[in-house]
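Weekly structure sync, notes
Attendees: PL, DS, HV (note-taker this week)

Item 1: Peroxidase
DS walked through the input record. Source organism listed as Panicum miliaceum. Sequence as pasted into the shared doc:
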Amino acid sequence: MASSTSGHCLFLALLLLSGAAYGQLSTSFYATTCPGLESTVRSVVSSAIASDRRMGASLLRLFFHDCFVQGCDASILLNDVGTFVGEKTAFPNANSVRGYDVIDNIKAAVEASCPSVVSCADIVALAARDGTVLLGGPTWNVSLGRRDSTTASRDQANSDLPSPAAGLSALITAFANKGLSAQDMTALSGAHTIGFTQCQVYRTRIYNDNNINQQFAKLRQSNCPATQGVNDTVLAPLDLQTELTFDNAYYGDLLKNKGLLHSDQELYNGGSQDALVKSYSSNRAAFFADFVTAMIKMGNISPLTGTAGQIRANCAVVN
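Item 1 (cont.): predicted structure, written out as tokens:
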């Protein structure tokens, strides 16, 4: 009897712990209402990446840009309509965030089998995980049950998303404001092992920073001239070595002062994250484990659950 009671107490304690960590989210949230959800999402993401391998990074970034503004509530997907102002035109998102069409395609496929059940916010979370996995990254169980916001905040998108020009202390603060540690920040920055960014975003780094490998700077300067307005949208890979494979090569770039963004190189520049960057550069398993932990934490930033928010029929507009 005693052992069964202690077992019950332990179960309750674990239940409370998981409740504290993840609100009302659960990995089995749609088990009965939409059992085929994850395979449907994976299928659409797989097709999208097959036709454009950059899309894996774009979907991961979409999730990050959603969660840092009002929490993981799909507010980033809302269009400007009438007097309603969304986040798509915020400085960090405009002409930069991609993948809205993929989310719409997933939503259409999910609605066909499970109408009015699955939130756009959960679709964004699943697509980010699948984009990571399909490019060779780690997998994790995505907690589900988020609902969609009826509001958005362009101002918050402009103020809360970390700048590519940010210094280390500003980066640590931006993530701390969302309940993420410096270690989470350094692990999540490893998402830059995939994807590309525009000349106008890295121009200052390649012409003005001192802590940059000169050969690397010259390589990037070759098609990103110093003159603003010239070749602004020319793309360069964030990871010099394996731009379309999710691995730990990004951290190796930082050790050689070949971080493309100022904010990237700040992680390895004589500061508090140097040892962790070194560790990740030589230990892919350690990076993957910490990345998964940080992604799960990020996915639990202020979700709308229960009766809050709504399940949007069209991800781009409020019902």
